[in-house]
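User: Hey, my collaborator sent me this sequence without any context and asked if I could get a structure. I don't really work with proteins. Can you help?
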Amino acid sequence: MSALFSQGRLGGLDLDNRIVVSPMCQYSGERGVAQPWHLIHIGNLMMSGAGLVIMEATSVEAAGLGTHGCLGLYTDEQEKALGSLVAQANKLSSARLGIQLTHTGRKAATRTIPERWRGEPLPPEEGAWKPVAPSPIAYDAGWQVPEELTEDGIRNIIQAFADSAVRADRAGFDLVEIHGAHGYLIHSFLSPITNLRTDGWGGSADRRNRFAIEIVRAVRAVWPRSKALGFRMNSTDWTPEGSTLDDAVDLARALETEGLDYVVMSSGNIKPGIAIPPAAPGHQVPFATAIKKGTGLAAMAVGMIAKPEQAEAVVASDEADFVALARPMLDNPRWGLHAAAALGADIRYPPQYIRARPNNWLGFGFVHPDAKPPATTQQLDRPKSVSSWDRPAAPEKPSTAA
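Assistant: No problem. I've predicted the 3D structure and written it out in structure-token form, which is a compact way to encode the shape of the chain:
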């Protein structure tokens, strides 16, 4: 039996398997509002064979948007659009759907990736807004110097995360992941490179961790226990002057006591110019393993996990509980279905695509010569209609009739 395709659990969620689609910014929002592109993009990924799909980094306030095209979840219009998307996406598969909440901090007000041939920071004539940060340190030469947050400003952002979580719950999301990595606002508080404060929000590691802890505490207070709450964490700043893996494990333990369910481990991006090891397949998996060994949290691994056998090995060897993929899913939006075939697992297909399932298509072996036949043939229930795939219903109680 495939470990990758065994059932998993995050918080109060039961997942069909251990494959997760990582959040991927689409730069296609308008005023922070999701557009038809997002439904098509997410809808495709809901039919990828993954057990969990997490929507892109979504800001908790206008100042936290990374670009003009990023999504937000701080207005009624944004909430309504996402609620409609969730309702439509949930008809496509039994995959669970989450959202990542963020504040980009001093990395706000940039051009989108397709536009960055003209430079990354957004100039005033293109509508740049003022970034905020724990300390007034620009990300790089040519970037704006952010405004140092006051006590009230910090408290307002903590509340904004909680408010956005309430909106995410109303919109129907199953999971919230808080973005605490990649040099964004939470990471900027965590790292001694970017947090030079001398008040209760900076200095010692405990004080630098305080912002992240209070955000998780505020979100946990409003986010249902029947759903899942996670945190994308920086594992290391890749420099002795920055945060380390030991710091990350200590923070994860603190967040576990606040009711966090899982951690996904990323690294780097606190500032330009730091020499980092070259990316290689599975290069960040050991960071997830450190969380598994050092805490009771579920650990999600990222970092060039692209082949089914590779993902299977990560889960089967207990290096991580889940694997999260981004670019491989853009490259192949049916990655999970093809991975199941490669590993000999038989999984649910959308009923509209059932003719392409390995045991229903004589040509599958010709197109995918390395695929294994499934060990068993799953008997799929007939859907109520060909336009939807309902989530599995609770089993009926046995009859008490004589």
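In plain terms: The CA atoms of residues 43 and 89 lie 5 Å apart. You can pass these tokens on to your collaborator as they are.
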